[in-house]
Design a protein that fits this description.
about 80 residues; mainly alpha; 4 helices
Length: about 80
């Protein structure tokens, strides 16, 4: 997950150098698009929130969810 989020940040920075600014709200909506189907429930919960979320908050939640999913997978082995 950290590599995925780093890649997004890298792309956003490259776009900024080309004077294309992606606002936080759009980034929060676009980031889940590249996630696997395993994250569908998580993505739905993020998109259906009534309160806005920042990209920093989304990143933290995504990392936590990835750790949780990994630990569940390890328990099932």
């Amino acid at each position: 997950m950290e590599a995925y989020l780093f890649k997004i940040k890298e792309i956003v920075n490259q776009l900024a150098l080309a004077s294309v600014i992606i606002n936080d709200e759009d980034l929060v909506l676009l980031t889940p698009n590249g996630l696997t189907d395993e994250f569908d429930a998580f993505t739905t919960s993020i998109r259906s929130r009534s309160e806005p979320i920042t990209m920093d908050e989304l990143s933290s939640l995504l990392c936590s969810e990835a750790i949780h999913m990994e630990s569940k997978t390890k328990k099932n082995i």
